[in-house]
Amino acid sequence: MSLLVVGLSHRSAPVSVLERAALSMDAQIKLLQDTVAAEPAGEAAVLATCNRIELYADVDKFHAGVAELSTLLAQHSGVGLDELTPYLYVHYEDRAVHHLFSVACGLDSMVVGEGQILGQIKDSLARAQDLHTAGRLLNDLFQQALRVGKRAHSETGIDRAGQSLVTFGLEQLAAAADVPAWARGRRALVIGAGSMSSLAAATLARAGVAEVVVANRTFERAERLAQILTEADDNAVTARAVEMSAVPGELTRADVVVSCTGATGLVLTAEAVAQAVEGRTGQPAVAASPDVEPEIPLPTAGAGDENCPLDLAAVPTGFSVMGEAAVAGMDAATLEQHAAWVAGGTIERPGRRSPEADAELITALAATAATVGRIPERRRPEPPAERPAPFFFLLDLAMPRDIDAAVHRLAGVRLVDIESLAESSADAPMAADVDLVRRIVSDEVAAFGAAQRAAHITPTVVALRTMAADVVAGEIARLDGRLPDLDDRQRGEIRQAVHRVVDKLLHAPTVRVKQLAAEPGGAGYADALRTLFDLDPETVASVSRAVDSTDTKDRPA
Length: 557
Fold this sequence. Notes:
By secondary structure, the chain is of the alpha/beta class. It has helices at residues 15-21, 25-37, 62-77, 81-84, 94-104, 116-130, 136-155, 165-174, 179-183, 195-207, 219-231, 247-251, 270-281, 324-327, 332-343, 355-372, 418-425, 433-482, 488-517, 524-532, 537-554, and strands spanning 2-9, 41-48, 52-59, 89-92, 187-191, 211-216, 238-243, 256-259, 392-396, 413-417.
C-alpha cells in the first residue's frame, strides 16, 4: 500500500471553483466512508479548509487510486469531473508526505506561515479516527505532520513570514493604515462563532474596537464567545450576542463586519448591505464607479430592448446590461431568455464583445446558476481615485463566500474576501526563515520515509524469529523424547546452546535487512526475506495487525 493525495487549492484553482467544490461536514463524512469502501483504498482522510480540499488515501494501485479519488471528489463536491480535473493535483508516496508537511508548516497557505492550518489538520485526523478510516499510515502521517508544523513554528521565524488570514484580512481592510489605529473606537459585527470567527473577534477586541456583536445560528455559542471576549484581560471591549435574525438591524450600526460561517448560500446579499448603507446614511446606496465606458450609453426603451427580460429601469446606472454585471443574481431560466435576447441584439458597442460572445458568456453563466443557484460576481479593476473613502468595511473569510461579491460596487463600502486576499498575497514577501522551514520539511520527510520502510519490514523479521523459535522448540521436544535420561540442568544447557546458535545466525541478517529497508527503494527486502525463508504470509499479516492494534491503542488523544 502507498500514500496518495488528490486535491485542489488556491494555488491550483480559482476561487469560484473552490467555492463550488467546498464540502459540508456531512459531505466529508460520506466521502471518507465511500473512499475506504472503494477497491484501491484502505485508509482515508479529508483535509478541507477555505483554501483547499484534499483527499489522502493508502492505495494499492496508483492509476486506479488517482481515478477513484478524483471521481469521488467530483461526486461529493458536486463539480463535474471534466470541469474539476484541470484543477486537481496529485502527490504520491514521498511527494505526498512532503506536501502535507509543507501544508502543516504554513508553506502552502495563502498567507505564508499562518498557524491555523495545524488545528485543521488535527480536526481532520480526529474525524478520520472517529470514523475508523485512518489506519496506521495516516495516523502516523498526520501525527508527524502536526509535530513538524509545531517544530517549524518553534524553531524558526516562519510566523514573521506571514500572518493569520484574519490579521492579513484586517490589514487589507485598513489599507495603508495601522490596524489598531484604524479599528479604535469602531463597532464590529462578527457573524459566526467558529474558530475563524472567534479569532477575528479576539483580534478586533485587542485592536481596540469599542464593541463586538456576535451573531450565530446557535445563540448559546454566540453568548459563550461574547462572554470570553468580555472576560479577557487583554482588551476592554464591550461584547454581546444576538440572534441571526437581528443581523439586518446590527448592520446599520456596525462599522466593521466579519463573516465566516458554514452556510452553503449567501449570508449577506448585496441588497441587505445596500439597505444597511441606506440606513446609515439616509441616502439610497449607489454604485461607486461605472462598469462600462461612459461614452457607451445603456439601452433604453424603444432601442431594441422590448423583449429583454431585464427591467431596465431597475438596473443601476453604470451597470452593463449586456455583460455579466447585469445578470448577477438571475436564475437560470431568466438567464437563458436574456442570452437569446442578446444574441439577436443590434446595438453597436465599439471595442466591446460581440452579441454572440455575450450570448455564449451568459449561457455559461446560466449553467453555473443551474449548478450553484446563483451567479458569482466577476470583478474588474477600479481606479482607487474614483471611489469615495469607505465607511463600511466587510471581511468575508468563508468558503463558499458569505457575502455577495457585488457589494464591492457600492459607494462607501470596502469588501475583502478570499478572492481579494489571494490576489493581495500573491506577491507577499517571503522571509528568510522560509528556507529554514523547507530544510526542516526535507529532513522530516526523509526521516518519516525511513521509519515507515523500517516499520514495513518489522512484521517479517518478527515472523522469521517466531518461526525460528518454533523450530527450536520442536527440536528440543524431539531431543527430550530421544534422550529421556537427561537431567534438567543438561536440558537447560542444550536449550540455551541451540537458542544462542539461532540468535547468532539471525542477528546479522535481520539487523542488516532493517538498515537496508530504511533506505529508499528498500521495500523489496521484506519480500526477499519472506521468499528466502518461506514465511507464511498470514503469519506476517497477523503480526502486522497486532502491531497496528498496539500503535492505535497507545496513540495519544
